[in-house]
């Protein structure tokens, strides 16, 4: 070729990273060279540089692609990653603008490798000469790893061809609506170019009076054609009609792109409607700039300084030093085997595992492969229509980050071991394990932007005596170090309090401390109302040491032993003997006091490593509670045998969780009967009951009462199933309030059904220990209140200052309220506080 009709161009590596041919890019538009020819780089650094001297002719609105034009008319496309257009610019920052003349190595785009890498299929970046008809030869580098500025490839290209321009004699198509979900980006643009290759004519695409050559991927991308927008095809030449017909059909059917759906286009035009333009009406915000509103999760009034926890994902080397991928895989994964044992249920997901292996086979480090795979799976969950599964993306990221931190040689704990005195800990959410490790001597309060009053973390905070508020306005995450007053009863956080406000809180705290001391002094007295009605005040426990604490705090019974908590940290199932020894130890500690043991309650948000359950679309509506035991009867029978053997050591009561029908109850009771006969144990002295946690059980309580000795109402789950709000939902859990009148009416129905059959009814859910709720529950005739162990003296003290007849009237008013907010307003009204004490105390 004559030198006058060709030129040679050398392109430098725009990224530091690993080179690969286009065939290894996971996108057909690039791997099949539909967009152009060149090379790809898997980046390890976050700055995209210019590969040569050129002018910036186009920066995609999503900032994931840049087009350059050299002085000799050679067009170069730099496209970062695969499917990055879906990020809509998140994680990208343009360092130049259209029209800038740039030198080789000039920074063009800055990207957040973690954010972008977790959100897309691949970070492999292509460096392309877009007009393949001009490429004579292309010589890539032989280096596998390049630094930004190293020679990437050289090419000999022919002289520029005639440009296509709009003319009056062009034939036009009817308007066509684009149905591609993210518009005409690189892949659909390449499909347009392919669709008209066989036709002899000039073809252009017109959008709102702006045209581009339909044979130029870069030109088409420059039109920034979005989903729902109209375009027109222009053509001139021998095959003009055939080209328009073929291309019209291809575009109107989505150009073969997955997710393209004409039914999603409502008005054939791009909508300006923004569904996120207004704040949620569900979530309350304070009109006072000094107050942040939340929902009480654990009672208390405290002052302190905010300590904001932002759990960051550790940084990893993208590529492993060890070139032998299999050896690296065995080394990194094998050494961390204990991590994966602890998360067996998570690791059983084949998609997650396979995704990790693919990354490892590409030479990525094990930590990087794990982190990126977690991000992908979490994104899939977050994008699902099912809000329950979408909410579980947070859980997946939490577990994934813990594993990542261990792989990075860090502690999986994101909360410092030592915190300042008078800390009010702030986080998006806290796992139960995070909460359990807090030291109440230093942590006086907890504020989370997610979660609710019935979350497991809230339950633990109450048990530890730490004031907690959930569903706090997100602004709190920016207020690290701010001095505040936390008043959970009023449901707000007061920022930068004045001396007068601090003094007022001291008065409130001193009064509360005096009442607490008085309650503790009388902890061993029974809880008898002013009009002579006795209530049993029990405690909820999870381990043997809790039983001893309960005795010390004046507890009259254990209303709930969460048996699964005894074994949740084990990687293998406990033996029958192990279980018997634990139950026997608790019974011996309690002496004559009754012990209600809830049989294994797993599923939903309570996984066990040694009992993996099948993946379900909605685990809260699948295998949970007694259904797990009935589906896996060997597990239930083993636990029942251990309980029956230990029964002689004390006053045992057996309780089945999540019973929804008489069918399930009869099957469970049959297991107890059969195992007792095998062991020759008389069970006539062992009470058998069920938890009322689902609306069907409450509605059918009159039927179920004939087959049990007692009911225990689990208000946390009853609330979530009644209000159709997942107790762990990141946004809605804060409004899942057990004082909702619908929940109170189901409690009332349950108690009346039990008493009609001569059976007793208790409450072991979080509502039992709430100051606002106790008078209502006393009025509804609940026989037993089972609360967190530290709350026992104060609940007993509160009951002793109530009049049940007066409480009955208040309970009736509460059940007639419109919602939980109105119920709480009723219970905090000074007139109500006086009324529930009745005429007896007034005299």
Relevant terms:
843 residues, alpha/beta, eight-stranded antiparallel sheet, eight-stranded mixed sheet, 29 helices, 34% helix
Describe this protein's structure.
By secondary structure, this protein is an alpha/beta fold. Helices cover 34% and strands 21% of the residues. The chain contains 29 helices and 36 strands. The strands form six sheets. It has an eight-stranded antiparallel beta sheet, with no helix packed on it. Strands 20-27-26-22-23-24-25-21 form an eight-stranded mixed beta sheet. It has an eight-stranded parallel barrel with strand order 29-30-31-32-33-34-35-36, surrounded by six helices. A hairpin with a 2-residue loop joins strand 17 and strand 18 (210-213).
Which SSEs are present, and which pair or pack?
Blueprint: E1 6-12, E2 17-20, H1 28-31, E3 37-43, E4 47-49, E5 54-59, E6 65-69, E7 75-79, E8 92-94, E9 101-102, E10 107-111, H2 113-119, E11 125-129, E12 135-140, E13 145-146, E14 151-158, E15 171-172, E16 176-177, H3 186-195, E17 202-207, E18 210-213, H4 217-222, E19 230-236, H5 240-252, E20 291-293, E21 295-298, E22 301-308, H6 325-335, H7 337-342, H8 344-347, H9 350-361, H10 366-382, H11 387-407, E23 423-427, H12 432-436, E24 443-448, H13 456-464, E25 467-470, E26 483-487, E27 492-495, H14 499-521, E28 527-528, E29 534-541, H15 544-552, E30 558-562, H16 576-590, E31 594-598, H17 626-631, H18 633-646, E32 651-656, H19 662-679, E33 687-692, H20 695-699, H21 701-704, E34 710-713, H22 715-723, H23 741-756, E35 760-763, H24 774-779, E36 784-788, H25 792-800, H26 804-815, H27 820-827, H28 830-835, H29 838-842
Parallel strand pairs: 22-23, 23-24, 24-25, 29-30, 29-36, 30-31, 31-32, 32-33, 33-34, 34-35, 35-36
Antiparallel strand pairs: 1-14, 2-3, 2-13, 3-11, 4-10, 5-6, 5-9, 6-7, 7-11, 8-10, 12-14, 15-19, 16-19, 17-18, 17-19, 20-27, 21-25, 22-26, 26-27, 28-29
Helix pairs in contact: 2-10, 9-10, 10-11, 14-25, 15-16, 16-18, 18-19, 26-27
């Amino acid at each position: 070729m004559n030198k006058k009709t060709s030129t040679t161009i050398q392109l430098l590596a725009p990224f530091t990273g690993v080179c690969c041919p286009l065939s290894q890019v996971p996108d057909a538009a690039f791997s099949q060279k539909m967009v152009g020819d060149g090379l790809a780089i898997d980046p390890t650094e976050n700055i995209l540089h210019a590969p040569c001297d050129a002018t910036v002719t186009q920066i995609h609105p999503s900032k994931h692609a840049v087009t350059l034009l050299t002085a000799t008319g050679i067009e170069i496309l730099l496209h970062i990653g695969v499917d990055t257009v879906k990020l809509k610019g998140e994680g990208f920052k343009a360092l130049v603008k259209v029209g800038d003349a740039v030198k080789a190595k000039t920074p063009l785009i800055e990207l957040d490798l973690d954010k972008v890498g977790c959100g897309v299929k691949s970070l492999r970046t292509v460096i392309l000469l877009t007009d393949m008809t001009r490429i004579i030869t292309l010589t890539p580098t032989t280096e596998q790893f390049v630094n930004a500025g190293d020679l990437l490839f050289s090419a000999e290209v022919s002289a520029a061809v005639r440009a296509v321009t709009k003319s009056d004699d062009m034939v036009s198509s009817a308007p066509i609506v684009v149905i591609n979900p993210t518009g005409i980006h690189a892949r659909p643009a390449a499909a347009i170019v392919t669709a008209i290759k066989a036709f002899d004519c000039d073809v252009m695409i017109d959008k709102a009076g702006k045209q581009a050559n339909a044979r130029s991927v870069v030109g088409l991308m420059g039109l920034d054609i979005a989903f729902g927008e109209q375009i027109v095809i222009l053509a001139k030449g021998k095959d003009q009609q055939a080209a328009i017909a073929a291309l019209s059909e291809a575009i109107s059917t989505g150009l073969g792109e997955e997710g393209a759906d004409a039914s999603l286009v409502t008005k054939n035009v791009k909508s300006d409607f923004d569904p996120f333009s207004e704040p949620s009406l569900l979530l309350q915000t304070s009109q006072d700039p000094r107050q942040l509103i939340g929902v009480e999760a654990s009672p208390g009034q405290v002052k302190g300084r905010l300590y904001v926890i932002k759990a960051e994902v550790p940084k990893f080397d993208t590529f492993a030093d060890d070139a032998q991928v299999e050896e690296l895989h065995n080394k990194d994964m094998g050494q961390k085997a204990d991590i994966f044992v602890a998360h067996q249920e998570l690791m059983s997901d084949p998609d997650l595992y396979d995704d990790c292996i693919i990354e490892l086979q590409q030479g990525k480090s094990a930590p990087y492969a794990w982190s990126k795979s977690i991000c992908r799976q979490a994104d899939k969950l977050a994008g699902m229509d099912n809000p329950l599964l979408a909410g579980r993306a947070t859980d997946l990221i939490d577990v994934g980050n813990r594993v990542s931190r261990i792989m990075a040689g860090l502690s999986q704990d994101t909360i410092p071991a030592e915190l300042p005195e008078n800390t009010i800990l702030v986080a998006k959410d806290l796992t139960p394990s995070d909460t359990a490790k807090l030291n109440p001597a230093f942590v006086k309060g907890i504020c989370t932007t997610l979660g609710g009053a019935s979350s497991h973390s809230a339950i633990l905070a109450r048990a530890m005596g730490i004031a907690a508020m959930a569903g706090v306005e997100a602004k709190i995450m920016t207020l690290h170090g701010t001095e505040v007053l936390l008043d959970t009863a009023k449901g707000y956080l007061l920022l930068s309090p004045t001396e007068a406000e601090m003094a007022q809180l001291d008065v409130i705290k001193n009064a509360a401390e005096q009442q607490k001391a008085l309650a503790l002094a009388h902890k061993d007295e029974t809880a008898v109302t002013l009009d002579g009605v006795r209530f049993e005040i029990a405690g909820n426990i999870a381990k043997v040491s809790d039983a001893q604490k309960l005795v010390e705090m004046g507890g009259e019974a254990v209303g709930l032993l969460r048996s699964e908590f005894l074994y949740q940290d084990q990687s293998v199932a406990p033996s029958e003997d192990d279980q018997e020894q634990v139950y026997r130890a608790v019974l011996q500690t309690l002496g004559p006091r009754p012990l209600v043991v809830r049989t294994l309650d797993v599923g939903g948000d309570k996984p066990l490593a040694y009992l993996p359950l099948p993946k379900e679309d909605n685990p809260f509506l699948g295998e949970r509670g007694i259904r797990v035991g009935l589906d896996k009867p060997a597990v239930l029978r083993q636990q029942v045998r251990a309980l029956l053997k230990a029964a002689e050591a004390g006053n045992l009561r057996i309780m089945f969780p999540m019973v929804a029908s008489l069918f399930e109850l009869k099957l469970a009771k049959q297991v107890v009967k059969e195992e007792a006969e095998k062991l020759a144990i008389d069970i006539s002295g062992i009470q058998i009951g069920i938890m009322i946690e689902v609306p069907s059980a409450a509605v059918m309580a009159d039927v179920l009462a004939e087959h049990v000795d007692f009911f225990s109402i689990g208000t946390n789950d009853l609330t979530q199933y009644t209000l159709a709000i997942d107790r762990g939902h990141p946004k809605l859990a804060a409004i899942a309030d057990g004082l909702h009148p619908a929940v109170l009416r189901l409690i009332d129905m349950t108690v009346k059904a039990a008493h009609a059959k001569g059976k007793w009814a208790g409450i072991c859910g979080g509502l039992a220990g709430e100051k606002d709720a106790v008078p209502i529950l006393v009025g509804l005739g609940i026989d037993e209140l089972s609360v967190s162990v530290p709350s026992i003296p104060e609940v007993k003290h509160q009951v002793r200052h109530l009049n049940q007849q007066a409480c009955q009237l208040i309970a009736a008013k509460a059940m007639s309220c419109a919602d939980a907010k109105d119920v709480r307003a009723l219970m905090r009204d000074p007139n109500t506080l006086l009324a529930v004490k009745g005429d007896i105390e007034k005299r």
